[in-house]
């Protein structure tokens, strides 16, 4: 790890601050509800689950949500050690991604400026544009996405159609009021394989990579699927399945509230049999992306496969954890060994 002051805090200090943050947000009542739900799902007694969750959160970098999402209640100690938790992911991001460059990924407008050649779509800054310019942009594309530049989990994202807008002055004022100061051309031409699963949402692919300055390592690939909403994120009803080295789904998809999807609930298309197209082209595309801002080594890229090839949606300098769920796939290991080998910890 570099010691020139541009990389954030040491691993130990980051972990300590993360623990303090978790304690500050601790809710005994919410924890008990979660423990009871896990107990019911996996047939475990409530008290041992509760104690294990507290121990894991305090000493093992396993927060309560990860414990539930990745079925830690039914994993052995050795199996748990193969999983990337959000705490581990956060530690790597803060210690390996140079702080002065983080805003380039944190702010969608700054990101679009820097990665413009890889976006594959038109975009516009609302604050710098007149009503006439905004109208021309929306009329040219038919549908657009309004975005809050700094947001997470699909929040602050709205889909607009030109046919829904009558008062353009009011439309611009509404965008400014909502903080949606970034407009992007809506992606209409997603690949037919993705459109078959969910044609009414742009289905993004989350690829987590680590770049050491010379070699890019793909840590994981998660194919996300939407439910007809503006975003395929879980708050919008979306879910994902991990993709293996042969481009095949690991098994059923899964999302929030412990829902498991062997098939897409709207289209009926099999998630278990899903095969991601154009993997070689994806790797080549990301080899370009990781070199645009090499100071940000650990990134969760959201990309979209279109009929014209892969395009960039956004990059996340704190990738979070997209991991395996054993109750969905039957597979009892995660992707942490890949990350450990790439980062060297």
Please, could you describe this protein's structure?
The chain has 15 helices and eleven strands. By secondary structure, the chain is an alpha+beta fold. It folds into three domains: 11-96, no CATH class; 122-185, Dna Ligase, domain 1; 190-343, 2-Layer Sandwich (D-amino Acid Aminotransferase, Chain A, domain 1). The strands form three sheets. The protein has a five-stranded antiparallel sheet with strand order 7-6-5-10-11. It has a four-stranded antiparallel sheet with strand order 1-4-2-3, with helices on both faces. A two-stranded antiparallel sheet has the order 8-9.
- The tally of strands reads 11
Q: What is the H level of CATH, i.e. the homologous superfamily of the largest domain?
A: ATP-grasp fold, B domain
Which range does the strand content fall in?
15-25%
Structural classification: alpha+beta
Kindly report the average pLDDT value. Answer: 92
Please, how many helices?
15
Sketch the topology as an H/E string, one letter per element.
Answer: HHHHHHHHHEHEEHEHEEEEEHEEHH
Overall shape: it is: globular
Strands of the widest sheet, in order across it, are 7-6-5-10-11
Low-confidence stretches: 1-8
CATH topology of the largest domain: D-amino Acid Aminotransferase, Chain A, domain 1
Please give the share of residues in helix: 25-40%
CATH class of the largest domain, please? Answer: Alpha Beta
Radius of gyration from CA coordinates? 21 Å
- For the record, the count of structural domains works out to 3
Distance between the termini: 10 Å
Architecture of the largest domain, CATH level 2?
A: 2-Layer Sandwich
What kind of sheet is the major sheet?
A: 5 strands, antiparallel
